[in-house]
Amino acid sequence: GGLGESIARTLALNNPAPQEFIATNDTFGESGTPAQLMDKYGLNAAAIVQAVKKVISRK
Q1: What does pTM read for this prediction?
Q2: Is residue 40 part of a domain?
Q3: Which of 6, 8, 35, 55 is the most buried (most CB within 10 A)?
Q4: What is the mean predicted confidence (pLDDT) over 25-54?
């Protein structure tokens, strides 16, 4: 459990809603532009849209 899990738990207790986590797995960081790093670690706009669609499909 990290920060995301703590926030999710608090939100779920007060306002239950479907959730999807977007995060990096255990990995060492690298150098690059913000866009390069977001693409490499799956934190770009396309990944966020995919996660939102996944949550919506579960409703």
Answers
A1: 0.62
A2: yes
A3: 8
A4: 91
